């Protein structure tokens, strides 16, 4: 019976350093991206991206024809975020900053770390341009999180700003852009005076379905019981206390 072969491991640090040197390096590059509003040219390597990420496998699936291939244009992706994704794909590690958090490429492990980073730095992250440029699919796991360190009133305002930017870029109504994500806002956490103000603002600039606001008022009317519990009434880590919370059994989970 053959004995098992000897497995030899090289130094992970030197391997990672070597691959990091290829990030945005034109040497041996066979694919170019034009990224962000600045239209910055970024160089990469097709085989590495395709084997590491399903998004790029689909994007780069067609073999390039003869001659110099045209660049792949990703005008809605922030440049810093794209470079952070590349660094993670090449080296399996990346240092996250509030300007470079990216969750748009279907990278499970990286997305989990990005969400955790935003949860811990919620107020800073919500004020960045990168937040305003998130896709709806990227924003959803954030709005579903109980661990966001931000009050619901501020989160509603951030969602409105995000939808306004998307509406301007896509030339669609604010409410239509917001529809996939606003259902995750926990309006019942707002005090009655805040909910009234939101209702008036919503009349002037539709953002949230009327039915969702009605459900929030129901939570206030019920004040207790199983019907007043659940995600729409559950506090986040950064939820500021309000007088009516004591009726809704709102211990943070």
TrEMBL record:
SUPFAM superfamilies named in the record: POZ domain
Segments forming a coiled coil: none
Cited PROSITE patterns: BTB
Recorded superkingdom: Eukaryota
Domain BTB: 29-98
Protein name per UniProt: BTB domain containing 19
Organism: Aotus nancymaae (Ma's night monkey)
